[in-house]
Amino acid sequence: MLDQIVFYFFATLAVISAVLVVTRRNVVQSAIFLITALLATAGIFLQLHAEFLFIVQVILYAGGIMVLFVFVIMLINMDVSLHQVQFNRQWWLGLLLALVLGAQLTVAIAVGRSGLPLGEPAPATALEPSTQLVGRVLFSEYMLPFEIASILLLVAMIGAVVMAKKKV
Amino acid sequence: MMIPTSHYLFLSLGLFTIGVIGVVTRRNVIIILMSIELMLNAVNINLVAFSRLVGSAEGHVFAIFVITDAAAEAAVGLGIIIAFFRNRETLLGDEMDLLKW
User: Fold this and answer.
1) What is the C-alpha to C-alpha distance for residues A127 and B59, in angstroms, rounded to an integer?
2) Cβ(A7)–Cβ(A1) below 8 Å
3) Is the pTM value of this prediction over 0.95?
4) Each residue's pLDDT tens digit, A18-36
5) Where are the domains of chain A?
6) Chain A interface test: which of B2, B36, B52 (most A C-beta within 10 Å)
7) Which CATH architecture has domain A1-81?
8) Of A15, A103, A137, B27, which is most buried by a Cβ count within 10 Å?
């Protein structure tokens, strides 16, 4: 019962704030609602017993990436863009195609119900000490991808610094 | 665990579709980047829900990789936005047509 209340609360919160991210005129408001959406997702991770991902989501997304966004919003003069048209000329076509994509994915889930036990609650498996388990898998089977991800982060860091510099 | 896995999938589907709508309809590049973050986040919910269903930790590991990619993408994307704003004084995606002819 508590599980259900938590899940549906965070799911509604995530969807409502995602809609507000996409529709707000002011970018700062969008950023605030993006924080809400990411924190609601973190709550869903916690409800799914993914404690490590919960804390990574809070620290990295809601802490790190959002600070980056807010800094860039501060650096860039926003007053002009408040009075411009917010949606592009083909917005109706884009909206239509996005809704078609959503319908397609709904059909995909409905078809997948026959192959996977999607309609029932997931079984309570031996995934309980999940942080320990994730660490073990990450540092044994996925060691090489882990190192490649660290190189990716290094490249992204250098790239961001080089691109944001005044004189290259 | 009383919630069927399909509810997680539908939540993820909803968030992903909202992100796609943001990417294809908005003009402001910063909001387009935020919508991409929303889409990556929706993928993470999917990965974790399936990890729970199958009973393996691999979904969590891939979610960590997705979060890493999201961080790298945000850093590079915002760097590009700053560089572009310095040159052209605009934030609108449909005015960024330097490579069109």
Assistant:
1) 12
2) no
3) no
4) 999 999 888 889 999 999 9
5) 1-81, 127-168
6) B52
7) Up-down Bundle (1.20)
8) B27
